[in-house]
Design goal:
- The protein has 286 residues and is α+β, with helices and mostly antiparallel strands.
- The chain has one domain: Hypothetical protein YwqG fold (Roll), CATH 2.30.320.
- It has 7 helices and 14 strands.
- The strands form 3 sheets. The chain has a 10-stranded antiparallel beta sheet. Strands 3-7 form a two-stranded antiparallel ribbon. A two-stranded antiparallel sheet has the order 9-10.
- The radius of gyration is 19 Å and the shape is globular.
- It starts with a helix and ends with a strand.
Length: 286
């Protein structure tokens, strides 16, 4: 991360100092920061894709089971915008239905279209095979328009790790002031980062964050695998996974306020460009 990016944390550092949090603890927390790309329909960054628009897929790719959210031109991303080993070019297409599942199934998908691949336009409504009117109303609220990228920074929005027995959770190891630091990030974030609903890389966030949404998603993947709804191999170790993209859908879709979509993927699948193995979890508190 560049010195300029580090300097952007000034408002957060000042707030932590005023709160009396020791400098060593603050710097240890800041050492967890990750670069990310904030994608918005405003701002002055380069155009790197779009919300919505025509759905262009290779001939052999089946119609996705979930609504089309956005496409990202990976070659257009600013250098070093994330720390993810993304392909240098091609398009990443994101799909999601912003509701929590009835069981453990993935609520979205990711399609990678390598550069030079022949594509054809598909029906953007094919996912709604029963023509459910409420779903079409929801889909009509999905944002549309060019996406511009801002190179940003991301800090954890969670302060605890879950346990399998009482007391069921504990403060993040090595960070005794994690809960206070998360609250301070929430109050200073707007002075540090560029506000937007779609993010590549970085940390996942939700309306009510306690534990890491990526860890919660991994728990769902494991259960989905055990139930025969997801194909392995699947690691239960959260460190083997990473956040690919995060969409605060509730900011964009009326009626789905507070909905957050998290596309997560195993690191080895990301390195091998097996984007079909990305899992989509949703937090929604209607």
């Amino acid at each position: 991360m560049t010195p300029e990016m580090w300097n952007r944390f000034g408002p957060f550092r000042d707030a932590a100092t005023a709160r009396g949090i020791p400098d060593d603890d603050v710097e240890r927390w800041l050492a967890t920061a990750r670069p990310c790309a904030t994608l918005t329909t405003n701002g002055d960054g380069p155009v790197v894709g779009r919300f919505g628009g025509p759905l262009l897929l290779p001939a052999g790719t089946p119609d996705p089971d979930h609504p089309f959210v956005a496409s990202v031109d990976l070659a257009a991303l600013p250098p070093g915008a994330t720390d993810l080993p993304l392909p240098p070019d091609g398009h990443l297409l994101l799909f999601a239905f912003p509701e929590t599942p009835d069981h453990f199934e993935s609520m979205g998908s990711v399609v990678y279209v390598p550069v030079g691949t022949a594509v054809a336009e598909r029906d953007r409504h094919a996912w709604n095979s029963h023509d459910i009117e409420d779903y079409e109303t929801m889909f009509a609220e999905f944002p549309q328009g060019p996406l511009r990228a801002t190179a940003d920074v991301s800090l954890p929005c969670h302060h605890a790790v879950g346990l399998t027995e009482a007391p069921w959770s504990r403060t993040l190891p090595g960070h005794p002031h994690a809960e206070d630091l998360v609250k301070l990030w929430g109050s200073t974030e707007d002075a540090v980062v560029f506000a937007g609903s779609l993010q590549l890389g970085g940390y996942a966030s939700e309306e009510s964050v306690f534990t890491d949404p990526v860890a919660d998603a991994v728990s769902l993947v494991v259960k989905a695998t055990e139930a025969g709804q997801w194909q392995g191999p699947v690691s239960a170790d959260v460190s083997d996974w990473t956040l690919l993209a995060d969409w605060q859908a509730g900011r964009d879709v009326q009626g789905w306020e507070s909905a957050s979509v998290h596309w997560v993927i195993q690191r080895e699948d990301l390195a091998a460009r097996r984007f079909d193995r990305a899992f989509t979890s949703v937090y929604w508190n209607p």
